[in-house]
Specification:
Elements lengths: L2 E6 L10 E9 L6 E8 L14 E7 L2 E5 L5 E4 L8 E9 L3 E6 L2 E7 L9 E8 L10 E9 L2
Antiparallel strand pairs: 1-10, 2-7, 2-11, 3-4, 3-10, 4-5, 5-6, 7-8, 8-9
Length: 151
């Protein structure tokens, strides 16, 4: 059973407003069962069970691997798996009307057309998706900060 939930920034972002989203994710252990996601969506149709929408641009981290996923569900970039990483991972999504740059640990891992609507307002958020049972008392992943900057 896949389930999830998260938080969204209640202020909508105009599509022509550049914005940077900085998040810090604490990784205590690699896991296949939990996915951490930082997303931007132009849709309000959040599913009740997973907290996902039908049209979003996102960075995700699962099993020691980061991925950038476009609104058509195409994985457009992924890092080599590294199940040895433990510590804080810093992620930044810089997004404007038609393009975005995704940085991880201050290195660009993806840039290009993000595929979101050029006319619909955007919602920013973060979430966890649980794909299986994790019986460990200590969370494998935890967002410890998020900051939204409008230049």
């Amino acid at each position: 059973m896949v389930r999830g939930g998260g938080i969204v920034w209640m202020q909508k972002i105009a599509p022509n407003q550049p914005v940077a989203i900085d998040a810090s994710l604490r990784v205590t252990r690699p896991t296949d069962e939990t996915i951490a996601e930082l997303f931007v969506t132009d849709s309000d149709d959040f599913s009740a069970d997973k907290g996902t929408t039908s049209h979003e641009f996102l960075w995700l981290y699962q099993s020691g691997q980061a991925k950038v996923v476009l609104p058509d569900d195409k994985v457009d970039a992924q890092s080599p798996p590294s199940r040895d990483f433990k510590g804080v991972m810093n992620v930044r999504i810089s997004i404007e009307r038609d393009a975005a740059i995704v940085s991880q640990q201050n290195k660009t891992i993806w840039s290009g057309a993000h595929g979101l609507s050029a006319s619909k307002p955007r919602t920013i958020g973060l979430r966890f998706v649980q794909t299986g049972q994790d019986n460990n008392a200590e969370p494998a992943l935890a967002f410890i900060s998020i900051k939204v900057t409008k230049p």
